[in-house]
Amino acid sequence: MRVTRNRFVRFSLASLVVLLVGCSTKDTFEQPVPVPEIDASVEFKRIWTMSVGKGHDDQFLHLAPLYAGDVIYAASADGLLVAVEPGNGKALWQRRSKDPIFAGFGGDGNQLYYITRDAELVALSRETSDELWRASLPTEGLAAPQSNGSLVVAQTTDGRVIGFDAANGERLWQYDGQVPVLSMRTAAAPLVGGDIVIASFANGRVIALTADAGQPVWQYEVGQPQGRTELERLVDIGGQPLVLESAIMVAGYQGKLALVDIRSGQEIWSRRASSFYSPSIGGGSIFLAAANGDIIAYRGSDRRELWVQDRLSWRQVTRPVASGDYVVTGDYEGYLHALSREDGALQGQLKFDSDGIRVPVQVIEDGNLLVYGNGGRMAVYSLKPKK
Description:
Radius of gyration: 20 Å
Subunit structure: Part of the Bam complex.
Low-confidence stretches: 1-28
Membrane topology: Lipid-anchor
Number of strands: 35
Structural class: mainly beta
Subcellular location: Cell outer membrane
Family: Belongs to the BamB family.
Largest sheet: 4 strands, antiparallel
Shape: globular
Helix content: under 10%
Distance between the termini: 38 Å
Function: Part of the outer membrane protein assembly complex, which is involved in assembly and insertion of beta-barrel proteins into the outer membrane.
Number of helices: 1
């Protein structure tokens, strides 16, 4: 995780660790534990693999593939754009952008969207990959643009949320959020519904805006800045809220895990938590990667803690996802870890990308796992009991 000060000064995680050592923060940053040795009972079976350019190209980006059911769309920082079939990895089209890419893909039924290093929002045809339009942003964006088919919303690192006409890229509205002096270099993509847009901010707030005009409807505080220093007061929300029918579930760093009514912003329930990512759900349980790297499972009905897996501490794990009887996460050294959904025991492991894994694993068709490493390797795996 990186930190941004005044939009321009950035620190690596190592620098952040050094800076936090002498501070009375709620999360004490420590050295990552070695990759745990396990007696594997499940293995990752590769279905297909491919290379997507240079991946994140040694930049702190979050270029997660877009799984659209019948197609996977992926982009690399050096401008390679691909569309592949989920079942076999066969390329449907491939093109090279003239611009380095900072964020994407987002998409709707007809178009794809990404943001360039020069802060331009670009729209492509999903079917042909032809460029349809581009629009300028006031500053860089790290979160994938989101669309409901008629409105495209981009969020920039300085807290601006901007709505564009999906047909031609015309700017329709802009909301200026507040950004603290110091914030994590994260990528919480907005949620875009038919009449409401929900955006997460580095000041620990989630704000609902009208889709037609970008006017605030409600706001909810996931984390409240506390402490004497800017480091102590970090309360970023680093992941897109999880939609559950008429509510959203959200988590924040040095904040809480909460369920919030999507129409009113009223809190349904909450409990203390500290995480860089949103939670995931599966089999009636909630799974959260704590800021210290622990994977925690809560019972969905009453949020009672079911288990904690602490053998991945400080390994910068990705958002855990449930697939069948397992929970899967990646880490900064490029390992994939399969945990038992029942008790959190480590049951499988695979070294995937030596450059690390930053974007979450995604569950796709047939419960298979879509993985994209920092170095550009993309693959689909299934989890099978080890013979």
